[in-house]
Design brief:
Rossmann fold, 21% strand, two-stranded antiparallel ribbon
Length: 296
């Protein structure tokens, strides 16, 4: 079945997205669903979104993918990506999806990559309507993450000086200082081809500050009783692997952590068989399509 383009309002902004219902689902038949969220400055057409959507469709789940505020076709100041705005957008997306005639409103999970993964973890902690969460290459503490991404004294000084200059620029001019993507989140040259077309290249310094201040570690434990799956490359070239390890330490059960040696940061776009096998097993145990039908 093809995507159905949709839109919903979050924070006064119109966000663009698409809902996909698997073939064979009858009118009025309800299925569990996943909201699939993109990474930093990306959009809902990225391979790290399209691949999970296709996977979930084959398994029988409804999916919603959408462009975060300021990204893709959604409204909002382009390049001004504020973490808590994205958290609100994800919750508002859930409110929208729960009303879909083919969705079990109390069985909606969230999945994301990188920035989207951090949002997926945060939202399950603060929004009790989220039934399950999957994080791929996510992060739980922005300050510690950035310290790992800018490891040398020179790199760390450059990054923190940029944050300070951003604040001064805003105070002096009333406008945002614009900063190149890779000054915020360095990505090795060999991985940059994984970035979606039309990804954002310049961001406000407020974006970096928002990410620095964002701490999903503090809320992940509030998801007790709702399953979380943390996936990470064992040697991640973008987001330090310790971020998922620390989230696992702070999570309540049920929470699983899997590290993969043969993948890197964009593991969903790689269509890795072992990653998918882990996800399939986890879904069968914690979030199966036919849970209620089997129990009846």
């Amino acid at each position: 079945m093809s995507d159905t383009k949709i839109s919903f309002i979050s924070g006064g902004k119109k966000l663009a997205g698409a809902v996909r219902v698997p073939d064979g689902v009858k009118p009025g038949e309800k299925r569990p669903a996943f909201i699939v969220m993109h990474g930093f400055g990306s959009n809902s057409s990225s391979s790290n979104v399209i691949e999970p959507c296709a996977m979930f469709e084959k398994l029988g789940y409804v999916t919603l993918r959408f462009d975060m505020p300021g990204c893709g076709e959604s409204e909002g100041e382009r390049g001004n990506l504020i973490c808590l705005d994205q958290v609100q957008a994800a919750s508002d997306g859930l409110t929208f999806l729960a009303k879909h005639p083919n969705v079990e409103g109390d069985r909606i999970g969230m999945i994301g990559s990188s920035f989207g993964a951090a949002i997926a973890v945060y939202v399950i902690g603060v929004d009790k309507r989220v039934a399950a969460s999957i994080s791929s290459g996510g992060w739980g503490d922005g300050a510690r993450k950035f310290r790992g991404q800018h490891p040398t004294p020179e790199a760390w000084k450059k990054f923190t000086d940029m944050l300070a200059e951003g604040k001064k620029h805003r105070e002096k001019t009333g406008k945002s200082l614009m900063v190149p993507r890779y000054d915020i989140v360095p990505i090795p040259e060999h991985l940059r081809a994984h970035l979606a077309g039309n990804s954002i290249d310049m961001f406000t310094a407020e974006t970096a500050q928002s990410m620095y201040d964002f701490v999903a570690d503090n809320v992940i434990g509030q998801a007790a009783g709702r399953p979380i799956l943390l996936l990470h490359s064992s040697v991640d070239s973008v987001t330090p692997t310790e971020q998922s390890i620390e989230m696992f330490k702070r999570a309540a059960q049920p929470c699983d952590l899997h590290l993969f040696a043969e993948t890197d940061h964009f593991m969903f776009s790689e269509s890795n068989t072992r990653v998918r096998s882990v996800i399939y097993d986890w879904l069968d145990k914690y979030f199966p399509v036919q849970a209620r039908a089997k129990a009846a």
